[in-house]
Amino acid sequence: MTQVIAITSQKGGVGKTTTAVNLAAAFAREGQRVLLIEVDPQGAILPSVGLDGQEPPLSLARVFEEDQDLGGAIMQTPFEGIDVIAAGRNAVGEELQLDRVAAAHPMMLREKIDGLIGRYDTILLDGPPTLGALTHLTLAAADLFLIPVQAEEYAYRTLDHFFAAVDRIRHDYNPELQCAGLLVTMVDLRTRMSVRVINQLHENFGDLLLMTMIPRTVSLQDMPVRGKPTLVHAASSRGGRAYAELAQELLSADEAA
Amino acid sequence: MTQVIAITSQKGGVGKTTTAVNLAAAFAREGQRVLLIEVDPQGAILPSVGLDGQEPPLSLARVFEEDQDLGGAIMQTPFEGIDVIAAGRNAVGEELQLDRVAAAHPMMLREKIDGLIGRYDTILLDGPPTLGALTHLTLAAADLFLIPVQAEEYAYRTLDHFFAAVDRIRHDYNPELQCAGLLVTMVDLRTRMSVRVINQLHENFGDLLLMTMIPRTVSLQDMPVRGKPTLVHAASSRGGRAYAELAQELLSADEAA
Ligand SMILES: Nc1ncnc2c1ncn2[C@@H]1O[C@H](COP(=O)(O)OP(=O)(O)OP(=O)(O)O)[C@@H](O)[C@H]1O
Ligand SMILES: Nc1ncnc2c1ncn2[C@@H]1O[C@H](COP(=O)(O)OP(=O)(O)OP(=O)(O)O)[C@@H](O)[C@H]1O
Ligand SMILES: [Mg+2]
Ligand SMILES: [Mg+2]
Questions:
Q1: What is the DSSP string of B13-70?
Q2: Distance between CA B198 and CA B194 in Å, rounded?
Q3: Cβ(B102)–Cβ(B108) under 8 Å?
Q4: Could you tell me the end-to-end alpha-carbon distance of chain A, in angstroms, rounded to an integer?
Q5: Atom of ligand 1 nearest to the CA of A129
Q6: pLDDT digits over B25-53, tens only?
Q7: Is B103 on the interface with A (CB under 8 A)?
Q8: Nearest C-alpha of chain A: how many angstroms from B92?
Q9: Which of B11, B133, B221 sits opposite A42 (nearest CB)?
Q10: Which residues of chain B carry a pLDDT beneath 70?
Q11: Chain A residues closer than 8 Å to B103 by CB
């Protein structure tokens, strides 16, 4: 059965895209067929999966605007088992269009995804760094959501408000929505800040905190330069191994559920 | 004459809030009266200016919703010369309201700010990490915009699209809008990535690149924990000095203009 996992956070720059791309690669390595949908119109996905500069056949914005089939927007990547859908063609004003459609039809993405169930084992949604209409659309479409929490004070402080917003979205659109966990990212245990944030997470969100933590490493920072998931260009690096471990942790939680 | 400077970037986590807060402190140290307006409903401003946990008298969301006077939302901070306006009271759904109003009235913030001209020397706008309606509202209200560019590949890649969107906003709402410059942030010259991004910026955006660069330092990372601008709690730190230098560079460019 296809599982839809949203990678979301109101805080910017916490590792949502890096996590979505590497989780896609990790699940694909386990033999899954994975679809990665970029709901954030920032355009970071294509350069990370070997499709830099390619034009999407149909963007998510146009699928919504013209009520097209999501299948028409799918792009194959050079990596076995990973397909992607890009948010937009980077046309000016596209974000305004996407926001407008999302505000008017918060269930639109869920309905479009229903047409793809069975074609993929996992569908990953890479969300924008807001709590606006696009994040509502993303969480309305998901079975699970995973929150990357950068090991920094600002990122930690957005969690209470984020969970309050999720409760509202569950109530209005998606009662079955579950939390897959909090993933600490860019951890550097030599710094007081990382240790402080990890302690705060244990104290206040202990039951949601994933065991796997993602270190701050060059192999992950380099991903957009290399044009492929770190799990592909440097599988045995600290960054690559951390995301392989994360996939195992999520898969075993899924089996246990 | 009051100058309105927007701190904006489509990329998340690049140092917009850190820059807005420290620039406010740097200008205040020069004897200016500064107003810092949080247009990003993430709620990071109050904990950074000694007002953690305080309730705004009136949030930006309510100023817009109820067509109130912006002056009613002003909060004094414990720091001489710095007043702030918070985006919201962190109520669930506030971001959707702000987005809705911004999409319907993109000139709303500019009109509200007109009522404050003369009360402040500089008004700084801390924008959200998107190119949606709130960023249009922010850039429509500004005289100048400054783009923090984190020394990372993803942040660099969003620039072309951002400038294309700015051209459109100039055309539709604000023909006088000027670029104050690109500010490289979280620079660590020991890393290949920082050197690479700085070289790319010189090559492709040389005339817009500010001389001042902000290093990645603990004193800036700690700011939300200390609850005050780094220029206040650690003025002689590398982070504090970098933002003092930035203020000088912007002020001398302003005089020369
Ligand atoms: N574990 C890591 N170690 C080092 N650098 C990282 C790591 N994870 C992400 N990065 C880098 O940090 C920056 C932020 O990561 P990323 O863009 O994935 O975050 P995001 O949450 O998707 O950002 P946005 O909010 O803009 O969508 C990027 O430049 C990325 O290359
Ligand atoms: N020069 C610096 N050195 C070290 N850490 C920094 C520096 N500048 C910012 N930070 C930290 O990096 C993170 C991102 O910075 P900040 O929140 O200011 O960016 P932003 O662009 O406002 O993010 P958002 O897109 O979420 O609004 C924060 O945790 C902040 O404390
Ligand atoms: Mg992203
Ligand atoms: Mg910010």
A1: SSSHHHHHHHHHHHHHHTT--EEEEE-STT--SGGGTT-TTPPPSS-HHHHHHTT--G
A2: 6
A3: yes
A4: 14
A5: 25
A6: 999 999 999 999 999 999 999 999 999 99
A7: yes
A8: 5
A9: B11
A10: none
A11: 96, 99-100, 103
